[in-house]
Write a structure and sequence with these properties.
about 400 residues, mainly alpha, three-stranded antiparallel β-sheet, 14 helices, about 10% strand
């Protein structure tokens, strides 16, 4: 590889102020490609403009009081520019996090195909609209709780299909909320799709491009999904009042409970991202284990880690520990549910037979509800199989790498 006259892709950037006044630069090369670098690294990257040789760059950096040799620059190119595919002509392939519980995902459409819709929906983030809608949400919730507590829902027949349809509609609105908030901030996002997160089918959106925003702005995007998801409680309450069917109030409470579950900060739900952006800490899920190992080494006196995380060191360590413990708990729960489902596989067979009978008897609503129930029952088994497969693949890759090094 010729290291002279190398050119970095065009990029925009924003500056984040870190501990003790230090600055980090978030470089955005595309909607999906973003890297965070130090001020010195940004200065070096700016030198690779396609017009300078390594000698030119060394001399230029000396004028900026940065002492590097040509060998140092070659190492920087290999470890930073090439590995992150930021040189012109390089194709960027997003790395999937192995720590994610999104074990299956399928892109369905590009979000820009509905750009016109999100341009309209972003009006819900104006102050007047937000106040009115939040008031309506709170009113709907209070009224639903009152109707349930007063016993108006007692003996009400459960419409399983209606519950499923409204629940998944609220989940789709949740993703629309994230996208509309991003559009409100002038940011376009990536694919919309469906997937499996832990033990539940979900919708998802590629929100990588929101790294162009600052932490406080990203918090609006983080919370936007829950805001939109709760909006559905307003029309559901109206339908309940008009129809006199109090079952809709129970649906409201179920949707609210789903939304509140999203606030859990220690697995990658909205609460996790809100916490990270509020505390202005990086996404710790990708290096939580390394942070804990470094902390243990520091306690043992093996290395000096006192200044590695600045004034936020304790926060990083505490959240990393809780994140790891929560992840282990989720995996343990998934394993327990999977084993339980395997030992009760006859239940799944009975569910399938009941589903077939419902469809044969001309009861498609009951059949679809039973299909959903069967699917949810089998999800832990699918989750465990996929996770074990990923672990096995990781072990095999690790062994192969060790073999190559030898």
């Amino acid at each position: 590889m010729d290291y002279n006259n190398i050119k970095v892709k065009d990029f925009s950037y924003r500056i984040e102020t870190m501990d003790e006044g230090q600055s980090k630069y978030v470089l955005s090369f595309s909607e999906r490609q973003h890297i965070k670098v130090s001020e010195t690294a940004k200065l070096i990257i700016d030198c690779f403009d396609g017009k300078k040789t390594l000698t030119d760059i060394v001399n230029h950096l000396k004028g900026q009081e940065v002492e590097l040799s040509e060998a140092d620059l070659i190492l920087f190119v290999d470890t930073q520019l090439v590995s992150n595919a930021v040189l012109e002509g390089m194709e960027y392939n997003a790395k999937k996090s192995s720590s994610s519980f999104m074990w299956c995902h399928l892109p369905v459409m590009k979000s820009n195909q509905l750009a016109w819709l999100f341009q309209v929906l972003k009006v819900f983030y104006t102050k007047v609209a937000a106040v009115l809608l939040l008031s309506g949400i709170v009113g709907s919730l209070i009224f639903s709780i009152y109707m349930v507590i007063s016993g108006n829902s007692a003996g009400q027949q459960v419409n399983s299909l209606m519950l499923i349809l409204l629940t998944y509609t609220s989940l789709m609105l949740h993703e629309f909320g994230h996208i509309s908030a991003a559009y409100r901030k002038g940011i376009k996002v990536g694919d919309i799709g469906v997937g499996m997160y832990m033990f539940s089918p979900v919708f998802y959106v590629d929100m990588t491009n929101t790294w162009r925003l600052g932490n406080k702005q990203r918090m609006l995007v983080d919370a936007g999904g829950m805001y939109f998801q709760l909006m559905i409680t307003i029309p559901i309450t109206m339908v309940g009042i008009v129809s006199g069917n109090s079952f809709y109030y129970l649906i409201n409470l179920f949707i609210v409970s789903l939304t509140l579950a999203n606030l859990m900060p220690f697995i990658k739900l909205d609460g996790y991202w809100i916490m990270c952006d509020f505390l202005e800490i990086n996404n710790i899920s990708t290096n939580a284990f390394q942070i804990i190992i470094s902390f243990i080494k520091a306690v043992r006196g093996d290395v000096d880690e006192n200044d590695k995380y600045g004034s936020k060191k304790r926060g990083y360590i505490m959240i990393s520990i809780i994140y790891v413990v929560s992840s282990v708990a989720v995996l343990s729960l998934g394993s327990i549910l999977a084993v339980k489902a395997i030992f009760n596989i006859d239940t799944a067979v009975v569910k399938v037979r009941q589903m077939a009978m419902y469809f044969a008897d001309g009861k498609p609503a009951d059949g679809l509800a039973q299909l959903n129930s069967t699917f949810i029952f089998l999800l832990p088994i699918m989750f465990l199989v996929i996770m074990l497969t990923k672990m096995l693949i990781g072990v095999i890759k690790g062994i192969k790498k060790q073999g190559v090094r030898k």
